[in-house]
Design brief:
single chain, Conserved Hypothetical Protein Mth637, Chain: A, six-stranded mixed β-sheet
Length: 107
């Protein structure tokens, strides 16, 4: 499946913004991408879902993965839920392309 058809990732070349739709699982043993959950990318977070810790850990993980400062990762929706939408400005790396390939081979 081409990345342009992924239900959980959209890159706008005009603005340089990558939008990710994720499903998070806070309180996991390790922070990592865990495949696909419905129409979203599943990310396990080692941080607990209290006092914004999971959201902070998510922004930190995504910023590191895409090689951008944390200020370039915006939580566009889903602040208090498991389903979240992130906007990444000017990603220098594109691990989502690899994640799409690895999740396709797992299915």
């Amino acid at each position: 499946m081409p990345v342009s058809e992924l239900p959980w990732a959209h890159f706008d070349t005009a603005s340089g913004i990558l939008t990710l739709r994720v499903h998070v699982q806070p309180g996991a043993k390790q922070t990592q991408v865990a495949g696909i959950h419905g129409d979203r990318l599943k990310i396990r977070l080692s941080a607990p879902p209290v006092e914004g810790r999971a959201n902070a850990a998510l922004r930190e993980f995504v910023a590191a993965a895409f090689a951008v400062p944390q200020r370039s990762v915006e939580l566009a929706s889903g602040e208090s839920g498991r389903k979240k939408t992130l906007r990444i400005s000017g990603p220098r790396l594109r691990p989502d392309l690899e994640w799409a390939h690895s999740s396709a081979t797992e299915a």
